[in-house]
Amino acid sequence: MPRLILISISLLLFAACSKQEPSSSEGGPPLAVTGSAPSVSGEKLFMDNCATCHMADGGGVPNLQPPIAGSAWISAPDPQLLLTLILRGSAVLGEAATAFDNDMAPLAHLTDAEIAALATYTRQRFASSPPPNEVTPAEVALARSRPGLP
Amino acid sequence: MTRLLPILLLLVLPGAARASLPAPDADNGGLVLPPGFRALVVADKLKPLRNMTVAPNGDLYIKTRRDGIYALRDADGDGRADVVQEFGTGGGTGIALRDGWLYHSTDDHVFRYRLTPGELVPAGEPERIVRDLPNRRQHSAKVFAFGADGQLYIEVGSPSNALGEPDRAKGAVGQDPTDFLQTHGGFWRFDPAKPGQTQADGFHFSTGHRHSVTLALNPANGRLFMVMHGRDQLNTVAPQHYTAQDNAENPAEELHVLAEGMNLGWPTTYFDPRQGKRMLAPEYGGDGKKPAPAGRFPDPLIAFPAHWAPMQMAFHTGAQFPEKYRGGAFLAFHGSWNRAPEPQKGYRVVFIPFDAQGLPAGEFETFADNFAGRAEIASPNDAAHRPNGVAVGPDGSLYIADSKAGRVWRIIHTGN
Asked: Is residue A132 part of a domain?
């Protein structure tokens, strides 16, 4: 139980901190757009890359993989924390990722446009209060350029 | 008359034994069973339960995943637990009775309590027999059993899918497992009575396996049997070689007899139940067609369907069940998660026939079903129950413990 509390607090803190980060439009490297969002299906990307572990309904698997549905990770208007997790996997969380048994693999092989579509779909489908903004390839490029957590 | 007496006794005794059985639940506790078997709920809505054991007087001891141990006693003989007590600290999986001691494991240590005859719950603090075993979360359950030699055999699982870098990722590259397997992916043998041992004090008995959540001694031949969980996510790692359906049906969960020095071929191989062949893992150059090097790793005695997640196994002793079940084994399958987008499967207890030499003989069959509560589920979250612990009572009843909703069933043979 203490571990669950720890990670819950950690996730909330990370989410809160992420809101204070500058948005991607305020800085970062030149855009590295590798595709256009409309041509990529976020739902298909989710089913191909995420649903195996997090389940099609986003409910996760008890003790093994966390639920996405309702998670603080996907509710923050600033997507940088979510994008970093998608790009680098759960290893980026260090000790904070100990509430579930399995590690999340990085999805850095996906293009910026694909990850933008994936993150947008995930937020709209599973957030308790979906952020109104779509995630852009430029925001993914910013996250990709950063070595660790935002 | 003297000659007739044994025959008359044979005719009367089964009926007498059945007369002493508790009344089953009208709905068999929600389970679907073979004809002649019935079930009752012994306890319900406990914490998530893992492995279990039964004392000679019928008391049940069940390890919880998160914290401590349950002790259950049926004081009035109606089959339902009248006394439910919790004791101890630390979540885990393994639990077993031996020579008046109750052994149990967390994910780090193996302990034992001295039981007092007649007392349900042990007094005093436990001894820590083995301490500080490797625990990196994934596959960290420390399952153990006592061999025919009286020694304590403990598994240290592999905290990995297939030792890929990055593990479970598309294009993961397999790492050299040599150093990793020095401390993971095997059984170690210890003195069951010596406190304070570390992994380095144990004898490294077997290697090259991913994880087994059971180890069961077959009294017919004194051999220990384990069931290895096969790897996950073939299509995630190598989508150019494996479809989602390929992954849903691959690889096998593997039944093996534990043998000194054996290497089960993880992480470089997996066993394909459809082809009946051991294959090279994609992290190590496999493509779904390349077989593993011949003769290096044993084939499983039984290749169970992929991703069913084998949990505790128990050999059947006692005379309550019909002849075909005697000497066989019951194995709980927790149920899959890694078959998505295909429907999830498993979520049952199967019966495995064993022959007089103590080896599997014939096809396994589903024994207790409908734990999920519906014909088809997409996620483990949709299952009403997930069978985890199995144990055989002194009268031959089969007990099953549930990791989802904390239910404990007793299965009896009434003949009706």
From this structure: yes
Ranges of each domain in chain B? 4-413
Check CB contact of B66 with chain A, cutoff 8 Å.
yes
Give chain A's domain count. Answer: 1
Residues of chain A contacting B170 with CB distance shorter than 8 Å? 105, 107, 109
State which residues form the domain around A140: 2-145
User: What was the ipTM of the complex prediction?
Assistant: 0.82
**Token duo for residue A16:** 């809160």
Residues 6+ apart with CB under 8 A from B5: none
pTM of the model as a whole:
0.89
Per-residue pLDDT tens for B129-146? Answer: 999 999 998 999 999 999
All residues at 6 or more sequence positions from B383 whose CB lies less than 8 Å from its CB, including other chains: B335, B344, B347, B371, B372, B373, B377, B404
Bridge partners (DSSP) of residue B34 are: none
Q: Which two tokens stand for residue A134?
A: 């779509």
Which CATH topology does B4-413 take? Neuraminidase (2.120.10)
Among the listed residues B334, B314, B328, the one whose alpha carbon sits nearest the alpha carbon of residue B229: B334
CB contact under 8 A, B236 and A52: yes
Q: What is the CATH number of the domain that holds A111?
A: 1.10.760.10
Q: Closest Cα of chain B to A129: distance in Å?
A: 23
Residue-wise pLDDT tens digits, B321-376: 999 999 999 999 999 999 988 999 999 999 999 999 999 999 999 999 999 999 99
Q: Within a domain: residue A150? A: no
A112 pLDDT above the threshold of 60: yes
Between residues B318 and B186, which one has the greater pLDDT?
B186
B341 touches chain A (CB under 8 A): yes
Complete DSSP assignment for B225-262: EEEEPPP--HHHH-TTT--HHHHHT-S-EEEEE--TT-
Tell whether A98 is within 8 A of chain B (Cβ).
yes
With respect to residue A65, please indicate whether it lies within any of the assigned structural domains: yes
Q: Is B236 on the interface with A (CB under 8 A)?
A: yes
